[in-house]
Amino acid sequence: MSSSEDSAIEALVVLGDPVRRGLYRHVTGTPGEVGRDAAAEAAGISRSLAAFHLDKLVEAGLLEVCFRRLSGRSGPGAGRPSKMYRRAEGEHTVSVPPRSYDAVSRLLAEVVERAGLDGDLQAAARAAGESEGGAPDGEADPVEILRARGYEPFWDGDRLRLNNCPFHALADQFPALVCGMNLAGIEGLLAGLPDGQDWSAAMDPLPRGCCVSLAVAEDAQDAQDGTKEVTKEV
């Protein structure tokens, strides 16, 4: 077994603890960084216990640490920077027996890019998204569909931003290809939904998130206000 597989298994073992799993979900589902106090409050545990579990998640490579003064001040008297946590950039995948889907994905992306088939890929992604949005008895709320797909949506004012890129590794290597496919897929999804015409999607990348954000048309905004509040609370 390779060292990368060992690391992935160790990471899964760390997440076997329900408290750590809850803390991990809270941190990774929150835009920006999360401090120990906020994490402890979210998990309903003491600050010291939260710090212990958060640092275990860092050791496993699931979270990373940065330091920031929460007061916003600098210089003498500003106090010590607080230890903050955020999602680590690395990925952990375990397959038993081992599989190499990532290698095939990279190879296919290279072929599509070299052959100039970006338009065909976007057309296929748009058709697949529209088919999913139009599936009978399916979820009709774009926010919940994107959440189920792993995008981790959150409201930022009037825009719905996506905290996670499900295609992160490939998007790093083939940004134009993968981000174009991603936008086309989301546009197709909206086109297939009953109320999808009330939404629009555009390239609007986050520094550590997805390249796409969504907005609701002004005449449908009032109907979305309740949904936004529920999403924020979740």
Automatic annotation (TrEMBL):
The protein's superkingdom reads: Bacteria
Membrane-crossing ranges are: none
Pfam families linked: HTH_20
Please report the name of this protein according to its UniProt entry.
Answer: Helix-turn-helix transcriptional regulator
Organism this protein belongs to: Streptomyces atroolivaceus
